[in-house]
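Exercise 7. Given the components listed, write out the predicted structure of the assembled complex. Treat all entries as one system.
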Amino acid sequence: MTSRPFAAAVETLRGAGLRPTRQRLSLARLLFEGDDRHVTAEQLHSEAEREGVRVSLATVYNTLHQFTDAGLLREVVVEAGRSYFDTNTASHHHFFEIGTGALTDIPADQVSIGALPAAPDGVEIDSVDVIVRVKRPAH
Amino acid sequence: MTSRPFAAAVETLRGAGLRPTRQRLSLARLLFEGDDRHVTAEQLHSEAEREGVRVSLATVYNTLHQFTDAGLLREVVVEAGRSYFDTNTASHHHFFEIGTGALTDIPADQVSIGALPAAPDGVEIDSVDVIVRVKRPAH
DNA sequence: ATAGCTGCAAATGCTTTGCAAGGCC
DNA sequence: GGCCTTGCAAAGCATTTGCAGCTAT
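Answer.
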């Protein structure tokens, strides 16, 4: 019989209108089984290779974007020239460690944003991101 | 006699420990005369060329980073793969318009951040960035 | 004079794309 | 079978760097 997590991953992909291919299934399991995580394309690609999954880096990029478009992932921009993808799509914020590049969640209820100014002219608010940049003090 | 803004730009550079070269002076005047602004390296380079200032793009990048290190500019990361430099170094936040890439200041006193969680383990808070992403509603 | 700058072009790092071959329905 | 996916390699961007020549002090 088919294992549970496997079936769950198939469902996730089907629900997103994506064919459950070997590559997408492997990446989905790496991403969504277990705790929430923050990955770069490069990281996910190495991880897949380490697990013996053959996937090209281009496919990892394509897949991450497809998952993002499907609402399964959220893209987090904290550093010029590098994209992080967050498996936690709920509203929340981030600690970003300068130097190591480590990203950590801040639950939404631990940051309260008071008065936000109204959006200018003809635009509407899409999202509010709070990034708390932290660093290790000079030794 | 030497014009006022010119002298001011020389002072700014001297204060930052940077030699007042022709290129740095021109860029400083484009950046700091007039209102606060948000520029990318590419934008500043085009603007310089339009004004007849000969500067290479590499020098614009180097200069923007030197100014940032000197505390004259602040780097703002809102989009993967593109850096904005903000002439307003005071604490404040941003509206970012998805689609056009337009950046607008939100004065610090118009956003109140309530309880922030303590920084994890051995790190200290460096800065807190709030980015309000806005977009033009589907027509 | 000399330490610091600049410009060019090449190199880099991340990401995207074109297209032929392969896999799912 | 037909359409969606994949992989590779090439292309694309924004940015950085090496180094010879120029410039402020």
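Discussion: Chain A is about 35% helix and 25% strand. The interface with chain B takes residues 75, 77-83, 95, 97-98, 104, 106, 110-117, 119-120, 122-137 of chain A (CB under 8 Å).
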